[in-house]
Every structure is written in structure tokens, then in C-alpha cells.
Design a protein that fits this description.
By secondary structure, the chain is mostly helical. Helices cover 55% and strands 5% of the residues. It starts with 7 loop residues before the first helix and ends with a helix.
């Protein structure tokens, strides 16, 4: 797709339509569409009226900053002067939206006549607020810790294969790979995990869809997990319980395993696996960090975690940047 065909206004509208189709196929939530559309339409109007933007490649750092300042001014007027500036988190979100849009253009535009591909990425360097999510410390498993934990779970099933080995393995893997909360996980019935109609390039259905009924929002939701990650565990439970039965309970027990008991089990798993971590929510953080690192798309992390607002998910962008900085020190 050609980067430039005419005026900045015309090309922005063309790329916006393409990006909008891309978002539609990603099946994002309605709130995500609304936020993205609002900011991008405002940005399109801004550059169409800006005298320094004649073609789309005139979108530079100063233009982006001017747009954000314009948004802040409008925000201040609506709040009747009670707030003069955006919160760092809000500003960071708007920058992420613009970066996602221009990043889409970078990935899909054709080279120019000299074989050069334009990129907007340099315009966003050091643009995000420095204090965004500064106080929030996210704990998660690194790659080695994930591998050691999963290897330990698999080894216990192979060596012993007790009922609780399968319980620990399935619950932890669902939280690591599907990003579920512990309360959502322990409420699962066998019939809540169904084969998804999503297929890979070979036409094979390679995902399970996990239906979640006891969610934080109170709404019915779903998430996905690769079949290969939990196949052996599901085979075990299919052999002993029915579709309507809760998964995470002892053999013959009436009550499901509660959070506190599972916390103790996870603590023992970490100790045995040589992982110096603790807690249950660390698995959900791990899922978010993993998918963001893999895709570099904050929307994917948002959809995995089923956050209602992108502001909530933005913390993971900061975590990845901080880890990169630590690694370069």
C-alpha cells in the first residue's frame, strides 16, 4: 500500500480505514474501538488543519506533541480548569494509540522509488511520560522461571501422576498461558473448556476456548489457550469427571479447592522447582508480559487480560521498557 498518494488529509483517511479494518478483524471490545476511534479521528482533524502538515510524512515529533497539548487544552476547558493536564497514564495511553496507528502504517507501506521504507518510530522516542506507573511494581516469572515451573509440573505427572499433580499442573498452566485470575480458574467446570473453531494455516483447530462465568466484572467472558499446553491434563480429567463437574476438587470431595489452600500448593511448587517467587496473581502478570513481548501490541495484552480500559494494561509497557533498561546497564 502506497504511503503517499495525495494530501495528508486524504492519506490519513485512507490509512485510518485500513487500520480500522485491522482492528475489526482483531475482534477488540467496543470500548477499545471507541477510545481508538476518538483519538485517531481527533488526530486526523488536527493534522488536516495544521499548516505544517502537507503530506503524511510531515507528521513529526513536534506535531504529535502539539496534538497532545491541544487535547489537554480541550480537556482543561471541559473540566472547567479543575485539571490542567492529563494524568501520565492517560497521556501514555494516547501516545500508545498514535504509535500503534503509525506502526501499522510502517508495517504495511510500500518502499518509495529509491527502495526506502519510511518509519514513524523515531518520532516517538522518549515521548511517553517519565513517571507513568512509576510507583507500581509488577512481579512476574522470567523465561527461566516459567520453564522450571512447567518442567517441574510435567515431571511430577510423569513420575507420580497423582490427582493433585494434575490439578496443580492444569490450574497453573491455565493462569500462565491464558491469563485467568485464580478465582476464575478454581470455578471452572470441565465443560467450560471447549474446542475453539479457530484454525491454523493447516486448517487444524489448535486452541481451546475457556468460558469464564465468575469474572471480576460479573460478565461472561472467554479466553484462549493452545491445546498442546493442557492436553494431557484434560485427558486425565475427562476420564474421571463429567462435563458439569468442577475440575479443581479432591476425588470424591464436594467442595472445590479454595484459594488459600491453592496458595500453599503453589508455594510448594515454586520451592520444589527452585523458583524464588510467591503469590498467585504472578501468573496473570506473566501471561500479560509474555504476550506483549511476543506481539509488541498492547491491545493483545488487553484482550488477554480482558481489561475494560487500556489504561489498566499500559503498566505492562513500562515494565518491559524497564526490564530492557536493566538488561543494558
Amino acid at each position: 500500500m502506497k504511503l503517499i498518494t495525495g494530501s495528508a488529509k486524504k492519506d490519513f483517511e485512507r490509512w485510518y480505514k485500513s487500520f480500522h479494518r485491522h482492528m475489526t478483524h482483531q475482534d477488540f471490545e467496543k470500548n477499545t474501538y471507541l477510545v481508538y476511534n476518538r483519538i485517531l479521528l481527533a488526530f486526523g482533524k488536527f493534522i488536516s488543519e495544521h499548516e505544517d502538515v502537507e503530506i503524511i510524512t510531515d507528521i513529526k515529533r513536534d506535531i504529535i506533541l502539539s496534538f497532545l497539548e491541544d487535547l489537554e487544552f480541550e480537556y482543561s476547558k471541559r473540566s472547567k480548569g479543575k485539571r490542567q493536564k492529563f494524568a501520565p497514564k492517560t497521556k501514555g495511553l494516547y501516545i500508545a494509540i498514535l504509535k500503534a496507528f503509525t506502526g501499522y502504517i510502517d508495517d504495511h507501506c510500500d518502499p518509495d522509488d529509491n527502495g526506502v521504507i519510511h518509519t514513524f518510530e523515531p518520532e516517538f522516542k522518549r515521548l511517553a511520560p517519565k513517571n507513568i506507573n512509576k510507583k507500581k511494581k509488577i512481579k512476574y516469572l522470567n523465561d527461566d522461571e516459567i520453564m522450571n515451573t512447567i518442567d517441574y509440573l510435567d515431571r511430577k505427572i510423569e513420575e507420580r501422576g497423582s490427582h493433585y499433580d494434575f490439578i496443580h499442573s492444569l490450574a497453573i498452566k491455565i493462569m500462565i498461558y491464558a491469563g485467568t485470575r485464580i478465582t476464575e480458574t478454581l470455578q471452572l467446570r470441565l465443560g467450560d473448556i471447549i474446542e475453539s473453531d479457530i484454525t491454523n494455516v493447516h486448517g487444524v483447530r489448535d486452541f481451546y476456548e475457556i468460558q469464564l462465568f465468575d469474572t471480576k466484572s460479573g460478565e461472561e467472558q472467554f479466553t484462549l489457550i493452545k491445546k498442546s499446553n493442557i492436553e494431557k491434563e484434560l485427558e486425565y480429567f475427562r476420564s474421571i469427571i463429567g462435563e458439569d463437574d468442577y475440575i479443581f476438587k479432591g476425588i470424591g470431595a464436594e467442595e472445590r479447592i479454595d484459594r488459600s489452600n491453592f496458595y500453599k500448593s503453589v508455594k510448594k511448587v515454586f520451592e520444589s522447582a527452585g523458583v524464588k517467587r510467591q503469590g498467585l496473581h504472578i501468573f496473570r502478570h506473566t501471561a500479560a508480559i509474555s504476550v506483549y513481548r511476543k506481539t509488541k501490541d498492547i491491545l493483545m495484552a488487553k484482550e488477554l487480560l480482558r481489561h475494560s480500559s487500556l489504561n489498566t494494561t499500559m503498566v505492562y509497557v513500562t515494565v518491559v521498557k524497564r526490564d530492557l533498561a536493566d538488561g543494558l546497564r
